[in-house]
Write a structure and sequence with these properties.
The chain is an all-alpha fold and 129 residues long. The two termini are 23 Å apart. It is built from 2 helices and no strands. It has one domain.
């Protein structure tokens, strides 16, 4: 019975270590995906701003309706991209917090596994000696 309890404890501890490693990997992936999305969004914003500038230089300023529409589109794009940038920033902070939390969980569960192993080795040593 005691051996079964020890085995169950070790299996649970190994599971917790594995689970925490998995959490660290997933949190890291989320962070790096958000970083690439931020770069992609920056590139799209640059292209959209470039398009508006080209349209203005090709006669958009001389046509009042076109100038009004270009100004409206620029305002919409700025609002959209600033909202998206804020959301990505918040998600990055969350991914970093998750990474830290999973890292702490990994350290604690690994340390508990090491201490349990040492404790078990000492018990076996006392029983043998």
């Amino acid at each position: 019975m005691l051996i079964r309890v020890r085995l169950t404890t070790y299996v649970l501890m190994y599971f917790l270590v594995f689970f925490s490693v998995l959490g660290v990997v997933v949190s890291s992936q989320q962070y790096f995906i958000l970083q690439s999305e931020e770069k992609s969004m920056s590139a799209r914003r640059t292209l959209d701003d470039g398009f508006i500038i080209v349209m203005k230089s090709m006669g958009g300023e001389s046509n009042p309706n076109m100038a009004k529409e270009l100004t409206r589109q620029k305002t919409i794009l700025e609002a959209t991209y600033s909202g998206a940038a804020a959301m990505i920033h918040q998600l990055e902070i969350r991914a970093i917090a998750d990474l830290i939390a999973w890292g702490v969980f990994f350290v604690i569960s690994s340390w508990a596994l090491i201490l349990e192993g040492r404790k078990q080795a000492e018990k076996e040593k006392k029983a043998a000696g």
